[in-house]
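Discussion board: Methods & Data

I've been asked by a reviewer to show the raw model output for two of the constructs in my manuscript, not just the figures. I'm not sure how much to include, so I'm pasting the format here to get opinions. Each protein appears as its amino acid sequence followed by a line of discrete structure tokens. Is this the kind of thing reviewers expect to see in a supplement, or should I convert it first? Here is construct A:
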Amino acid sequence: MVTGADDALGAWRAAQRGVAPTYDRGPVAAQSLSFAAQVPVPPEVVARGYHAGGLGDLQRVVSLQSGGVDPLPGVPLDGAAWQTMHWGSSRDAADVEVVAEPGVLTVTFSSAWSAPVPWLETVGALWPDLTFELWGIEPGNELFVHARVEGGRVVLMDERAPTPEELLAWGYDVDEM
């Protein structure tokens, strides 16, 4: 959910429209929310390819996210790893729906394996006049996220295992977990 003045919300909504890199997969249609619109993938990453580094590049991301040193600082991350590092998701937003009401945009989407917290932090800093609130759940990774960015700063970050009540609220069968 994004809240703020209607003119700022309209500008934000327009700025989110875009396409993710194709990585030679053919044309990709523009959508109303693309993580790449405000946090674009660098050309050298696109040129390297989506899975060029394989598991090794994802291990580099884990090291970098935990404050470690990149063992290959002169080699760009591949697309999947770069997107995981900078968006929080190896793929772009999918199944995007936007509902506009006065002072509020409700944006629903799916992302791969985790909530796009790094993307949210970057976009929140770019749009300090807006307030962003993100809820996400990924039961396979035992992850529930609730984040809020106000005035360009993260003011709430709740990342933990989901409760049975939260799983039910999101439509998951607790008995199958």
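Construct B, same format:
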Amino acid sequence: MIASETPVSRLRVEFPEMSAHRTLSGGQRLIAFLLAALLVAGLRLELALTLTLLLALATAVYLVNLGFRLLFLISALRGAPLVAVADEDARSIPDRDLPVYTVLVPAYHEASVIGHTLQALERLDYPRERLDVKLLLEADDQETIAAATAAAARTSLAIEIARVPVGLPRTKPKACNVGLAHAKGSLVTIFDVEDRPEPLQLRRAALAFRRLPPSVACLQAKLSYHNARQNIITRWFTAEYETWFTLLLPALARHGGPVPLGGTSMHIKRDILERVGGWDPYNVTEDADLGVRLQRFRYQVMVLDSTTLEESNSDFVNWVKQRSRWYKGYLQTWLVHMRHPRRLWRELGPRGFLGLSVMIGAVPILQIINPLFWGLTVLWFVDRNPFLQSLLPPAIYFPALLSLVLGNFLALYMGLIAIRVARRPYLLVAALLAPAYWVMMSIAAVRALLQLVIAPSFWEKSVHGLDVHAPVAEGAHATR
């Protein structure tokens, strides 16, 4: 048992401008105030002109987002640039030549699930003497600590339980920093409590790091869901994940953009992770933030051709809470890294700078404004009053129409392509009904914006175990 008093926010000390311990910097507050004042003045003095300019700006953002996604789709159709390691190669490495691998498993109020977690970890094909497994449990979560202690005694794994100090922020990245401080491995990965990693995943990652240039700091394994068929929400969620990990993420890595990591199954070199400050305990999407930070420090992230199966959120309220946290974290990440735009431009280059804004910053922002444009579209066809027409001169109307038609078609088409590549035909109906899923996304995005203002570092925990009885043997796979 590890009782940790280790500082959990090295990033705030070493790179304070990259920490989300404050939502806005002084300069950002000033800019936000000036923009708000300008908006209020414009709406009062020149209502029509101000609304027209806002529509033009939103249309431009939609079009840039559309252009990026079209580029990524074309790139993906040419062949996903995945890091592949054959089964025989992964198994051929002598155990003595494998690096010590630290596996971090953060958990909070997961007493009913933690036993299944350890069953999944036992299936990992990796020498036990070179595994450093750490369960990261909150010090006051006695129920999970007791369940984990009992479950650990029944496994062949040497498991350490680290008690995460009670205090704010109470977040997953804070727990991971405690684990990092006691890590023994040269490679580190994270698995969530509901994860079922492919058994050869650690061996594949270890061999891939040997083969790749030293600049490759992190390998993100693909994620999917074992309970995709449970209901319409899990089918939507699975189709979305297939689009993200099959098409968008590999293309983003190929084009040199910052890669928003997944919160699990990301494999990283420990020395580099420590060099860039570890995880940000104040950012509720510490994974996306770390991906951007690695890029700023001139490291590469690639996608590993190995899949971890997770439990998809099957409950509407639970899904909205989880997605609100993700969108809030995306906004945090974008605001943190945009504190010094010129410096960011130099570090990421124009492609990376735009990639950050489009694939991270614009995602929740567009979901927030989508309902407004859906409403405008309905009004346009139902009642073309002169005022509404005056807001959409041809220079705005036709690009907006292009964005509406092509953007929605592309979103649906990418989902269909992804489920075809993943060979999941049972997701076809869900993919075609995706517009209803987009409404859920907008609800979550509005909620995320409100939380960003009132509780930026509050970690709204997802409930796990809604499909806990699915057999652990229904494992993950490498997708080659």
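Answer (T.O., handling editor elsewhere):
This is acceptable in a supplement if you add a one-line summary per construct. For B, something like: The chain has 17 helices and nine strands.
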